[in-house]
Amino acid sequence: MAHEEIDKVTGVSTTGHEWDGIKELNNPLPRWWLWVFYACIAFAVGYVFVYPAVPLVSSYTKGWLGYSQRASALAEAEAGRAARNEVGQNLANASLEEIKNDPKMLEFAMAQGRAAFGDNCAPCHGSGATGSKGYPNLQDDDWLWGGTLTDIEHTITVGIRSTSPDTRMNDMPRFGADGLLDAKQIRNVAGYVLSLSGNSVKGADVDAGKQIFAENCTSCHGEDAKGSHELGAPNLTDKIWLYGGDEASVINTITNAHRGVMPTWGGKLDPVTIKSLAIYVHDLGGGT
Fold first, then answer.
1. Structure pTM?
2. Does 229 map to a domain?
3. Per the domain annotation, does 3 fall within a domain?
4. What's the CATH code of the domain at 129?
5. Which pLDDT score, from 0 to 100, does residue 1 have?
6. 108 with 91: CB under 8 angstroms?
7. Which residues are bridge partners to 132 per DSSP?
8. By the 8 A CB rule, do 149 and 159 touch?
9. For residue 23, how many other CB atoms are within 10 A of its CB?
10. From CA 17, how far away is CA 245, in angstroms rounded?
11. Which residues contact 8 (CB under 8 A, 6 or more apart)?
12. Same domain membership, residue 274 and residue 135
């Protein structure tokens, strides 16, 4: 038996291991640490027998409980789908007003509408629905085709100048590009239009522009220039401009028109999702 060496400083025997003159003391592990270690070993052995643990060639050991995380996750997902289908069916059978007045259906519609908006509408209208040049702000109270729940649902369904046979359609004439008005007449009518919201166009004859407006524009925008939801004609008396309200932008709009397009979502989104979108957009603050 090898001679036991005792460390002179601590009085503890050494293991015989030495590195660069430093000798390892033979201190025992703490009792609590050993018990934890043994308990972990026992737990691991038990886990192997109780739960799926050991990989085999084409499968794995199932364990005494037969538990499967995949099966558990699928069951939870199916339960969630069943709950959504139940509420979704209620939404399908309910009117928009009924959904708005039912807290449970409204909560579901708002959540689904928010998700659908982010997936389908945010690229144009922005994640906050505030729009940009050429894309309407859905948080204000200015609506080309109406801001009621029914109006919004219909617009989402059929789109604007889209491929739907029932799409909302009304094209503004290209007064300059098609030679309907000359440059001076366009400047005059632009001056009149901007004067309605307290702005002006340099060198424009507002009175002449008013006459031109009466002859060419009132059929859509109305004699008071407040527009028409039935025709999708904007209100020209407020300071909300889809394509810009500065002199150059208004002259360009009269000259070339814009004729923006919104896709039809009918057939692309199911009716419940469209209802949810209508509820969500209406609830943004601009719905009427």
1. 0.71
2. yes
3. no
4. 1.10.760.10
5. 47
6. yes
7. 135
8. no
9. 13
10. 87
11. none
12. yes
How many other C-beta atoms can be found within 10 angstroms of the C-beta atom of residue 206? 18
Residue that has been written with the tokens 């919004």 in this structure: 152
Our count of domains for the chain comes to 2
| Cα 66 from Cα 201, distance rounded (Å) | 80
* C-beta neighbour count of 160 within 10 angstroms: 20
pLDDT in tens, 41-51: 999 999 999 98
Q: Which domain holds residue 90?
A: 73-154+264-285
Residue 193 identity: V
**280 and 239 inside one domain:** no
Alpha-carbon distance values, 113 to 73, 90, 117, 174, 278 (Å):
25, 15, 6, 36, 7
Same domain, 276 and 142: yes
Mean pLDDT of the chain: 91
**How do beta strands 14-19 and 22-25 pair?**
antiparallel
Digit-coded pLDDT (tens) for 130-159: 999 999 999 988 999 999 999 999 999 999
Could you tell me if 80 and 148 lie in one domain? yes
